[in-house]
Design goal:
Blueprint: H1 26-40, H2 67-75, H3 79-84, H4 87-101, H5 107-119, H6 131-143, E1 148-149, E2 162-165, E3 184-190, E4 194-195, E5 212-218, H7 219-223, E6 233-239, E7 243-245
Antiparallel strand pairs: 1-4, 2-3, 2-7, 3-5, 5-6
């Protein structure tokens, strides 16, 4: 991952924000809601578990939008720009740019509406009741979208086995924390079945469903003795493609 998503062990970054509230301002709830609606209407749900009637859903939204879409936008930001904005501000920018890029709204129209609500914050928002979509959102919130898939292939690794983390080519979006690259760990659990991801990461290696493992790392092996508390173990869930045999 890029700098802003790979902070493990980096020094002199300033105090850690320990804000306990999920939403600091009211508008952040709406941004989370928009993201949730987009996921509940996403085209990728046609192949999800459980299955959803996306093909017959009465909505004009016909795109794929997942957590990967949101993360890819954030990870592509210039690091200093990333640190400048708060969490849901980055969500807002990514979602807005997505709708502009896909032609759902023009940039000047978005700017005009933004100016309108800034000067009239209590102005009513558009409301278009759509009961099937509301039901879809409720079902999605309850049932979710599982990446678990059946597989006939046996996992390459077993519990207790020593492995090393791979160092694949850098891509726009990865599920591999940067601070774990090339580190030694031990398989602590082999999850049953195989798992896919919302999108293919290309050269990074995630594509077809594959086994996922919980891997244990000694903190000192990651950050060194001087920066680690004694007897500390770090656990990470990693796709099989990110692991290689200790003697490989």
């Amino acid at each position: 991952m890029k700098l802003q998503h790979s902070l493990g062990g980096l020094q002199n970054l300033g105090p850690v924000n320990v804000e306990p509230r999920v939403f600091v301002q009211e508008w952040e709830k709406r941004i989370f809601g928009i993201h949730t609606v987009m996921m509940a209407e996403s085209a990728h749900l046609t192949g999800a578990l459980p299955q959803y009637p996306v093909d017959t859903l009465p909505t004009t939204f016909k795109e794929t939008w997942t957590w990967a879409s949101l993360r890819t936008g954030a990870e592509s930001m210039q690091p200093f720009e990333y640190f400048k904005y708060r969490y849901y501000e980055k969500w807002l920018m990514g979602i807005s740019q997505f709708f502009v890029d896909k032609g759902y709204i023009m940039a000047d129209e978005l700017a005009s509406l933004t100016a309108h609500y800034r000067t009239q914050p209590d102005a009513p928002l558009p409301e278009r009741p759509n009961e099937p979509v509301k039901q879809q959102i409720t079902d999605y919130l309850v049932k979710g979208d599982s990446g678990l898939r059946p597989t006939a292939e046996a996992p390459r690794f077993a519990s207790g086995q020593t492995v090393y983390v791979a160092d694949p080519a850098a891509v726009d979006h990865t599920r591999l924390p940067g601070y774990l690259r090339n580190k030694k760990g031990t398989i602590s659990e082999v999850y049953p079945g195989a798992y896919n991801y919302f999108v293919s990461t290309g050269p990074d290696g995630i594509g077809e469903p594959m086994p996922v493992y919980r891997v244990a790392f000694e903190a000192a092996d990651i950050w060194g003795e001087s920066l680690s508390e004694p007897n500390t173990t770090i656990y990470a869930d990693l796709y099989e493609v990110y692991l290689k045999q200790a003697n490989a």
